[in-house]
Fold this sequence. Notes:
Blueprint: H1 8-14, H2 18-37, H3 54-71, H4 73-81, H5 90-112, H6 122-141, H7 149-164
Helix pairs in contact: 2-3, 2-4, 2-5, 3-4, 3-6, 3-7, 6-7
Amino acid sequence: MARATVGAGSLYRLFPSKEALANAVFREAKGRLLARLQATPGERGGFFGAHGAPSEVFEALWWRLVRFAREDALAFRFLELQDHVSYLDGESRQLEVSSAAPLYLGLLRLQEAGLIRDDMRPDAMLALIWGALVGLFKNERLGYVRLDDATLRAAADSLFTGLIRAR
């Protein structure tokens, strides 16, 4: 607030409650995450609707999430540190569901094609992938691990082998 040179009360002229403010921040942060998962000019496809070998699809997802965590650390931390469910309004809940749906459906399609393991639901796979990423970056912030590209690549390989690869 001090850097913005506004008082805390000024926010409540724009937002009727703390929950409304939190929903606005949530939607902004989630929107930035979704933008990271989309293709950008010069990149080969986005994760949504990605085609190719399962390893390529997973790589697209992993490295886009890593870039988001590195380059938009505040939004990443907000999304990973908060249990948002208690205050999310309908619009934010819809954004949460709609943002996970393409990822879920992509994994489901790969399962149906027999390209990835089918003994774990796609939502559980996504939770483990996100959880691993969150854990790595949290431990880096705490000084327990140094995340260079080699470490992140090894983590991606481990996740792909353990969670995604067809048996």
